[in-house]
Design goal:
The chain is an alpha/beta fold. The chain is built from 16 helices and 23 strands. A nine-stranded mixed sheet has the order 3-1-4-5-8-9-12-11-10, with helices on both faces. Strands 2-13 form a two-stranded antiparallel sheet. Strand 11 and strand 12 form a beta hairpin.
Length: about 450
């Protein structure tokens, strides 16, 4: 198959016919418009599946009020994958004050109303109604953060795991690359979807926990719904079991069945991170959106580069650790510079790299000698009340990235647009980083992390 940077994944039957396909292996349903860029969840997972040899197509923002859009690509051979999009659909629709928003940057022309409230539940129930027992896999932030019984801010009640309300078969929580690859390989080897119950980084439904002898049983949904102390106990256990090296399975009764969370997927190595971000993205919205003026969310990240993921900051208002994990996973300097070179080939590129960063910009290449074997410490924080001596920061590496990127022909400026953690600057090597940042790499206002301080 031609994996040139000028092709998109199929979105229609005619696209399938051009490839000589009469059936897809996987159909992805997304609450966002289709943007083929590594900052967009459906785009990156689609490319990962494609790299595994899968015939994969995308149905973006289907009309949930009818069946037509959901049948556009037919019944997949392996499963449907469903995501609400890059942002939780309720947050996409409403402000924190519960006022209706009037635009949607992840939709063509900034148009509001192209996805339903609680998109994952609505899409999945529609698929179940149309296709019956075809396996359905959930992923993305909306599903990931609702994997067990959870407090719902919008209705001010405790709701069941989204796996129960959606009637899906499995959740991939967190960053899903390893899980997707393992699942596809095992399905192609002949295993039945419903018999696969041991993939790390997934959540399943079980009638018994006999197959998970070391699991921790959380207070049941019915209990946490009525008892705040029990809810707090369940939440605390969930947050303490998020490190891949130490976490155990969790089980929570919902009625007469268990929602079982397997331990998190292992972190990606540097070479795996490099391979992921070097997949053949077009870095464009699909041409069907041209007439609407494109997808605004792309404009802020079109010429940005992800250098790393994960965060050990432990901010109480933030979901990063629960979704990405605390161990920082970084790309190599060469891989980042290779992506810079690719950006300079795009006709729209004007010489400005808008960002090289991650959840917290100055955590690039952070590492600890304990992480690989023992995981992140449960009894202490990496940087509070002060930086642990075992934590090594990657300031020399990021300074080299900045300097070498500016030497690439066609690059005029390299900016940092994601937040900088200022408590990590209170080390001797932080002076050189801060000086270079302020002199050369701030485009307007410097963003800080955490955004809230008490």
């Amino acid at each position: 198959m031609d994996l040139s940077r000028d092709h998109f994944l199929p979105i229609s039957r005619s696209d399938m016919q051009k490839r000589g396909w009469d059936e897809l292996d996987v159909v992805l349903i997304s609450g966002d418009a289709y943007v083929d860029h590594p900052s967009f969840g459906a785009g990156i997972i689609g490319r990962i599946m494609e790299a595994q040899g899968c015939r994969v197509g995308i149905i973006a923002q289907p009309d949930w009020r009818s069946r037509k859009d959901f049948t556009r690509l037919g019944k997949p051979r392996l499963f449907f994958g469903v995501t609400g999009g890059n942002i939780d659909s309720m947050l996409n629709h409403y402000t924190a004050g519960k006022r209706l928003r009037h635009n949607d940057a992840y939709s063509p022309g900034n148009r509001h109303g192209l996805r339903p409230n609680r998109a994952v539940i609505v899409y999945t129930n529609r698929l179940r109604e149309i296709f019956g027992d075809v396996p359905i896999l959930l992923g993305g932030i909306e599903a990931s953060l609702r994997r067990i019984a959870h407090y719902d801010y919008w209705d001010e009640v405790v709701r069941r795991s989204i796996l129960m309300d959606s009637r899906a078969d499995m959740i991939i929580y967190g960053m899903g690359e390893n899980q997707v690859i393992e699942l596809i390989n095992r399905l192609n080897d002949g295993e039945e979807f419903h018999h696969i119950r041991d993939i790390r980084g997934t959540v399943i439904i079980a009638s018994s926990i006999d197959d998970f002898p070391d699991c921790i049983v959380l207070p049941s949904f019915e209990t946490v719904k009525q008892n705040k102390n029990a809810f707090n106990v369940a939440s605390k256990i969930l947050l303490s079991e998020i490190d891949p090296m130490t976490a155990r399975p969790l089980a929570q009764m919902h009625g007469n069945r268990y929602v079982v969370q397997l331990p998190p997927a292992r972190p990606l190595s540097i070479s795996e991170m490099d391979q992921l971000y070097e997949l053949p993205f077009t870095r464009r919205w699909h041409p069907v959106y041209d007439h609407a003026g494109g997808v605004p969310a792309l404009e802020t990240v079109r010429f940005s580069i992800t250098s790393h993921r994960g965060c050990y900051g432990d901010c109480s208002f933030c979901s990063l650790a629960l979704h990405m994990g605390k161990q920082v996973q970084s790309r190599s300097i060469n891989s980042i510079l290779k992506e810079v070179q690719e950006l300079t080939k795009l006709r729209e590129f004007k010489g400005i790299i808008s960002d090289i960063g991650g959840p917290t910009s100055n955590m690039y290449m952070s590492r600890c000698s304990r992480w690989k074997k023992y995981g992140v410490c449960k009894d202490r924080n990496c940087i509070i009340p002060e930086k642990c001596p075992n934590l090594k920061l990657g300031y020399p590496e990021i300074l080299k990235v900045w300097d070498d990127a500016l030497k690439i022909p066609g690059v005029k400026k390299v900016f940092v647009s994601t937040g900088v953690r200022y408590d990590l600057l209170a080390v001797p090597e932080g002076d050189a980083y801060l000086e270079a940042l302020c002199l050369n790499h701030v485009s307007g206002q410097l963003k800080i992390a955490p955004e809230h301080v008490d």
